[in-house]
Amino acid sequence: MINTHDILETINMIDNENLDVRTITMGISLLECIDENIDRACDKVYDKICRYAKDLVKTGEDISREYGIPIINKRISVTPIAMLAAACPTSDPVKFAHALERAAQSVGVNFIGGYSALVQKGFAGGDYALIESIPRALNETEHVCSSVNIGSTKAGINMDAVKKMGKIIKETAELTSDRECIGAAKLVVFCNAPEDNPFMAGAFHGPGEPDCEINVGVSGPGVVRAVLSKCGDCDITEVANLIKKTAFKITRTGQLVAQEASKRLCVPFGIVDLSLAPTPAVGDSVAHILEEMGLEQCGAHGTTAALALLNDAVKKGGVMASSHVGGLSGAFIPVTEDAGMIAAAKSGCLTLTKLEAMTAVCSVGLDMINVPGDTTPEVLSAIIADEAAIGMVNSKTTAVRLIPAIGKKAGEWLEFGGLLGGGPVMELNTASPAKFINRGGRIPAPLQSLKN
Amino acid sequence: MRAFITVIGKDTVGILAKVSAQCASFGVNIQEVTQSVLQDMFAMIMLVDIDKSSVPFDDLRASLEKLGDEMGLKIHIMHEDIFNSMHRI
Fold first, then answer.
1. Which is nearest to A8 in space by CA: B5, B63, B17, B24?
2. What are the φ/ψ torsions at residue B15 (nearest 5 degrees)?
3. Quick check: A61 contacting B, CB < 8 Å?
4. Residue A10 touches partner B, C-beta closer than 8 Å
5. Nearest C-alpha in A relative to B83
6. Looking at the domain that runs over A25-191, which CATH code has it been given?
7. Domain over A220-449 is classified CATH 3.30.420.40
8. Which of A72, A86, A160, A295 could form a disulfide with A125 if both were Cys (CB 3.0 to 4.6 A apart)?
9. For the whole model, what pTM was predicted?
């Protein structure tokens, strides 16, 4: 029998340290739903999602009860809708968003991702119309999430798309300004977007993925922090070792849940995403892990190094625990979703410039950051360009999810509630990058892309 | 399927007897038991076979948790695979 200490450790992780499986995400290909008649296409989309995902939520709940491990979200990701919109160029793509919303409500999932376009090298049919429709789609739906990939190490950065996305983010915030600008919290701009990411708002089911698959995102910053809080004054090598061991255990639960869900739903297992995903709940913060390592507050000098160590150790520990690893895999730093980050942003210790540095070593990018409502689209675009450049040059995923707080200034507050949390509006450098952004064109792919 | 029942709390008379009686009444077979008392804290772990349980897993868990509440103890029942996957390579 497994020894008492190990059993009690597992119970304690779940009961007191917020260990959970953050999401079971079913990826569904909608390529077969392409139709030149948008209403027919929407019917096919709705039918296929409902047929494939009808048991997803119940299965997640059953596994959660049997294994005693909380599974917080059940979600769906679909083929980028721009690919379907390409077949019906004269129709309004928002109809697809409504079909996704209806399907999400029918099967009872928390979010559905894939109102997306992949335009890293340029716009194909359907891409431009879909991007233009994003603000309305996010305003008129509740569960639909959107993402746009504007760059990659292989393709470079599509600066026309970067320019466009600054405007789209602003417009989305404006349309939903009566609801804390929540639309912008459901919109991610990516460089090097992974095609099997189970986490929202950036999840979509890439064109290279199978017809259907189960991807699982683990979590557990609280567990890592608890382990470090007991390690005393050990050196950094030992800190990395402890994180690795803990990440292994966390990921094994994710792997178990993924296999079980795949078996019960008769859907192939895709990947486990080894991410430390925080929530605003006390004891579930990535920032607090960094502080536990010895920083007075997240954002202090040393934060980037501590985050680099954490991100690397999570991957090293997790990779052996799962047969297939993918998605974003690393530590997330969404400001409004992390109690420690919220506190650090409020106190002024955590600034946007420090966050930008952190994104060079974390698993995603500038995530869930509230910015002043009068920020110009060009400044938003320039932030996207900077982030994309970090991702492109370092061959990693970077993303931007900024929420312009319409009618609010730096220091005021936006509150979304739930897992999205809330936080202060952060100060931005407002010097104009307009001429640079308005040039358009494409930043050539870096030398790193020539690996063959 | 096998599961681990863990009982944690302040040591009192009859914990083992009451939890075992509950298991027996549902046809749950106890295969192994370990228990330790550290100062006043009691921790017992039972490996049980629930294939012949007369009630669904959810009901079994609910009744054990209820028993725990009555006795001022924390009782969990969880599938053994979660522990195996986490602690064995």
1. B5
2. -65, -50
3. no
4. yes
5. A7
6. 3.20.70.20
7. no
8. A86
9. 0.93
